[in-house]
Design a protein that fits this description.
There is one protein chain. The protein is of the alpha+beta class and 209 residues long. It has one domain: Alpha-Beta Plaits (2-Layer Sandwich), CATH 3.30.70. It is built from six helices and six strands; from the N terminus they run ααβααββαβββα. It has a six-stranded antiparallel β-sheet. Strand 5 and strand 6 form a beta hairpin. Helix 3 packs antiparallel against helix 5. The termini are far apart. The N terminus is likely disordered. InterPro entries: PspAB-like (IPR054383). Pfam families: PspAB.
């Protein structure tokens, strides 16, 4: 990093390493043992929307790839809990798009493969700069439905790192910072956790949270 970069607060870009997503299943085991959170079966990739035929084609390719999964189709048609609409696209209040994938809660490896495929397809089509993050949703076990706390493990595409995002149980647009730091410590050996807390951006409106 050059002197000018230091003065301007710039750092060199880190090459994305999407294979780090495959560390999530083992991290989920640690998360359940340490904090009592289990996957909900919902995950999503967030990206900045782009107009144009090329992006529309890449977007369609991603959806067709996921919807062609025979295991997903069988799961959805059988009405398995957590299956829901297998693939959908939503847009949050900030204008970002989310491509949402749903699997059975006990099939986290398949969900992670979906997220990897979405990121890889968009990256391979030249839309890496539009990729922002991927989120996998977890919920607290052993509590009544409305009282269950939610937690997202967020993968920052451009950093290649993870961090926890925990909305407070009482809502109101607040975060449970104590829980987030507890999860950070618990997953230190399972994932490459983002050490710069200033980059733990809130992902309000993320699917499943």
């Amino acid at each position: 990093m050059g002197f000018l970069d230091i003065l301007l607060g710039r750092t060199k870009a880190v090459a994305p390493d999407l294979d780090r997503l495959f560390g999530l299943p083992s991290a989920a085991v640690t998360l359940q043992a340490a904090a009592g959170f289990t996957p909900t079966g919902t995950g999503a990739v967030c990206f900045a929307s782009v107009e144009g035929a090329a992006f529309a084609d890449a977007h369609r390719e991603v959806r067709e790839l996921l919807e062609a999964d025979t295991d997903r189709a069988e799961s959805s048609s059988s009405g398995e809990p957590g299956a829901g609409p297998p693939v959908e696209v939503t847009r949050d209040e900030y204008g970002y798009s989310w491509l949402v994938s749903r699997r059975a809660p006990d099939d986290l490896p398949a969900l992670v493969s979906d997220l990897h495929a979405v990121n890889s397809t968009l990256e391979g089509s030249g839309f890496g700069p539009q990729l922002l993050c991927s989120v996998v949703a977890f919920e607290e076990t052993g509590e009544p439905g409305p009282a269950r706390r939610r937690l997202g493990l967020v993968y920052l595409y451009k950093r290649g790192t993870f961090y926890p995002f925990a909305p407070s149980a009482d809502g109101g647009g607040r975060r449970d910072n104590a829980l987030e730091l507890r999860i950070k410590a618990a997953l230190a050996d399972d994932l490459r956790v983002e050490q710069d807390l200033g980059r733990w951006f809130p992902v309000w409106g993320a699917p499943g949270l």
